Amino acid sequence: MKKRQINIELLRIISMMLVLLTHSAWGPHYYNIDMVHTDLPRAIGVLEVYSWIFVCVPCFIVISGYFGIRWKWKGLMNYLFQIGFWGGMIYLLTWMLGLHDFDALKMVKNMTCFLHGVNWFFAAYLGLYMFAPLLNAFIDKADEKQMMWMTLAFFAFQTVFGWIMKQGEFYFGLTSTSLIGWYLIGGWLRKSTLKCFHLKPWQNMAVFIGVGQVCVVIALVAAYLGIEKGTYSYISPLQVIQTTYLFLFCRSLKISKGEKVITFFASSAFAGLLAHSWEGGEIYSIGMRWISDNLPMPFVFAMIYIIMFFAIACCLDKIRIFVWNKLIARA
Q1: 3-class secondary structure, 257
Q2: Considering the entire predicted model, what is its pTM?
Q3: Would you put residue 2 in left (φ > 0), alpha (ψ -120 to 50) or beta?
Q4: pLDDT in tens, 175-223
Q5: pLDDT in the model for residue 184
Q6: Residue 186 CB: number of other CB atoms within 10 A?
Q7: 131-134 contacts, C-beta under 8 A, 24 or more apart
Q8: CA dihedral for 292, 294, 300, 304, sign (positive or negative)
Q9: Residue 193 CB contacts under 8 Å (≥ 6 apart), including other chains
Q10: Is 187 helix (H, G, I), strand (E, B) or coil?
C-alpha cells in the first residue's frame, strides 16, 4: 500500500473515532441554545467539540470518491454481509449479557436492517454504491474544470435547497443524494491542481481549525440572539470546507511508521459504527453514562473508552472477515 494511501487510511480511523464521539455525552443532542445563557463555559466547550465531530461521516464518503467505488457483486454482498453479521452478533452478545430476551424475528430484522432503517447510513451508502458506476463514468471522463464546476453547482444547489430551505431530499446530509456531493468532492480532489488543495499539513490543519472557530462564534451569537441555525449540519457550507481540509491534512501527511497497525484498524473501521448500532448502542451508552457519573475529567476518560471500544470492535471484525473469506473461497 502506498504511503499516501496509508495517510488516507488513517483518516478512516480518525473519522470513526469522531463518529463514536458524536454519539457520546458530548454529541449534538446534548446542546440547546439556552445553554449560552445558563452555562456559557459548557456551551463553548460543547461547540468546540462539535467543530471536530461533524466532519466524521462525510470524510468516509470523500475517501470513497477519491479512490472510487468499483461496482462488483462481491463488493455489494460483502457490504450487506457486514451489516448482517454484526446485526446478528450484536443481538446474540446483548442477549447473553441479559439485556433482552431472545426473539429470532428481531435478530433477523437486525440482520436485514438495510431494508427498513435502524441506521440512516446503511441505506444511504447502499444507494450511493448503486449510483457509483454513473458517478465514476462522469468523474473518469470529466476534466479538472468540469469536475470543479459540477461539484460547486451541486453544493450551491444543496446549500440553497437543503441547508437554507431544508428540503427533505437532503435531510441535512442523511440521504444518498447528499452523499453524492461528498463523492464528487473526492473525485475533484483527486484531479485538482489548485494550489489551495495542495498546502502543507499545518496549513490544512489551520484552515480546518480556523473554520471550526468561525462555526463556534456563529453558533454562540445565533444562540444568544435566540436563533436556531444549523451551523453544525452535514450540509452546512462551513462543514463542507472543514471536511475537505481534514481530508487534505491527512493526504499531505508523511507517515513512515505504523503501516501495519494503521492497516489493521482501518480495514475494520466500519466495525466501530456497526458495534454501536442496534442493541450495541445500549452497551456503548452504559459505559458513557458510567464515566460521566463516576469519573473526574469525564471527557478524557470518554476518549480512552472510545479508543478501547473501537479497538475491540476492529478485533471482533476480523472474525467477520475470516468467515467472509471462507464463504467466498467456497463460492
Answers
A1: coil
A2: 0.92
A3: beta
A4: 999 999 999 999 999 999 999 999 999 999 999 999 999 999 998 998 8
A5: 97
A6: 25
A7: 131/176, 131/180, 132/68, 132/69, 132/70, 132/71, 132/183, 133/71
A8: negative
A9: 144
A10: helix
| CA–CA separation, 66 and 63 (whole Å) | 5
- Site of grid cell 451508502: 125
| DSSP reduced 3-state for 321 | helix
d(CA 312, CA 321): 15
CB 326, CB 277: distance < 8 Å:
no
Local structure of 29: helix, strand or coil: helix
Q: Is 190 exposed, middle or buried (0-12, 13-18, 19+ CB in 10 A)?
A: middle
For 7, which DSSP code?
A: H
Mean pLDDT of the region 153-165: 93
What residue type is 143 in one-letter code? D
d(CA 315, CA 107): 22
Q: Which three cell numbers stand for residue 141?
A: 471522463
Long-range CB contacts (within 8 A, 24+) of 295-302: 298/25, 299/26, 302/21, 302/24, 302/25, 302/26
Cell representation of residue 138: 462522469
